[in-house]
Amino acid sequence: MSTQKVAVITGASQGIGAGLVDAYRQIGYAVVANSRTIDLAEADDLAVVSGDISDPATADRIIKTALERFGRVDTVVNNAGVFIAKRFTEYTAQDFETMVGINVAGFFHLTQRAIPLMQAAGGGHVVNITTTLVESALSVFPSALASVTKGGIASATRALAIEYAADNIRFNAVSPGVIKTPLHPEETHETLAGLHPLGRIGEVDDVARGVLYLEQSPFVTGEFLHVDGGQIAGH
């Protein structure tokens, strides 16, 4: 088995996910990057697996690739997610299936497959990317399905931290505010900045720094780290 640590990152084609791929490589990790469509060039320390994370076959291929290329899985960052802002009665059955599939099933299939590898190796780390909206709702962003799906993952984070503490597998969550990614057109940035007490929207690097803090803090587990410009504290 290689001594180089390996991180698996979902939703890695752009935005926060792409920033996390760079961040982990910069601290010396090999990375297995996944997204439905992804055009990152593979390298000695980077393997790419395209596919829908809601499909259990994609999780199988991610784990297989990690073992074949690098021989291990040390960290999983469940970053893939979808947010559909609608009033609750306007959600469709397809909206529900999409959000549950990506936000919940993707987390379930990949994490469940990674845990035995971490147990065999004597430890590991899982980071779940959620959203502050699950704890602090905003009328301008109807987010009931985000609360059901990402909120469920946030709750599972603490349950799993306790369940696997004896195996030295840590589970943490990062809860971002609004982050400057392609999902938010530039003309919306000024309005979105007003949602945060610090008066700006976040940068991808802000989230990456938070994830790396948790990665490099071996005595931290079951933690929710809010990277949201003070949104969770109030307005």
UniProtKB/TrEMBL annotation:
GO terms for molecular function: oxidoreductase activity. It comes from the Bacteria. SUPFAM superfamilies: NAD(P)-binding Rossmann-fold domains (SSF51735). Its EC number is 1.1.1.-. It is an enzyme of class 1 (oxidoreductase). Pfam families: adh_short_C2. The keyword Metal-binding does not apply. Keywords: Oxidoreductase. InterPro entries: NAD(P)-bd_dom_sf, SDR_fam. Belongs to the short-chain dehydrogenases/reductases (SDR) family. This is SDR family NAD(P)-dependent oxidoreductase. It comes from Promicromonospora kroppenstedtii.
